Amino acid sequence: MDAMQSWYVIHSKPRKENQVYSQLCARSIEVFYPTIRVKPVNPRSSKIRPYFPGYLFAYVDLDAIGVGALQWLPGVNRVVQFDGCPASVPDNFISELEKHITTINNAGPIDLNRFKKGDPVKITEGPLTGHEAIFDMRLSAKDRIRVILEVVGRLVRADIDAGTIEHKLPKKRTQNL
């Protein structure tokens, strides 16, 4: 009988992703730990950050090794479950995520200090793609920012990933000849 391996989501304790990654690798478990390169505000800070802080993906046959083999590793908070069943992630999601992370990293480090309060920005990814907003602030959560945008005539604050905005280019003025 073939092994029924799937990708499972592991939630690590705060800032223990590297420890969990090392533990899984030491046990010869295939791991996907999506990270991105950043240009941090503090130059002494890590230049590699988790794309999903606190989360990694492990490719295993849970029937063969048991959920406890993952759940009780040092640094692990839990294996993500829904209704008591470990949540598996489709292979194509992992492969698309790998491509996305590669694209981000090939573009160069994300400069976390490139926006100033009040800068006009355009949201380039996610459910708010295409909306224009005003940069408000960096948040304490890694690589998260707050923007202010107008929704149905009201100003609304939204907390989003720092890599999903770009400076809004000023509109070109045209002269009537």
In summary, what is this structure?
With about 180 residues, the chain is α+β, with helices and mostly antiparallel strands.
What does this structure look like?
With 177 residues, this protein is of the alpha+beta class. The protein folds into two domains: 6-111, Alpha-Beta Plaits, CATH 3.30.70.940; 120-167, SH3 type barrels (Roll). 19% of the residues lie in helices and 37% in strands. It is built from four helices and 15 strands. It has helices spanning 17-26, 62-65, 68-71, 91-106, and strands spanning 6-12, 30-32, 35-39, 48-50, 55-60, 76-79, 81-82, 85-86, 88-89, 110-111, 120-123, 132-138, 144-151, 154-161, 165-167. Strands 1, 2, 5, 6 and 9 form a five-stranded antiparallel β-sheet that branches. Strand 7 (81-82) and strand 8 (85-86) form a beta hairpin. It is elongated, with a radius of gyration of 20 Å. The mean pLDDT is 86.
Low-pLDDT runs of 5+ residues are none
Mean pLDDT value: 86
CATH superfamily of the largest domain: NusG, N-terminal domain
Instruction: Determine the structural class based on helices, strands and strand pairing.
Output: alpha+beta
Helix-strand pattern, N to C?
A: EHEEEEHHEEEEHEEEEEE
CATH topology of the largest domain: Alpha-Beta Plaits
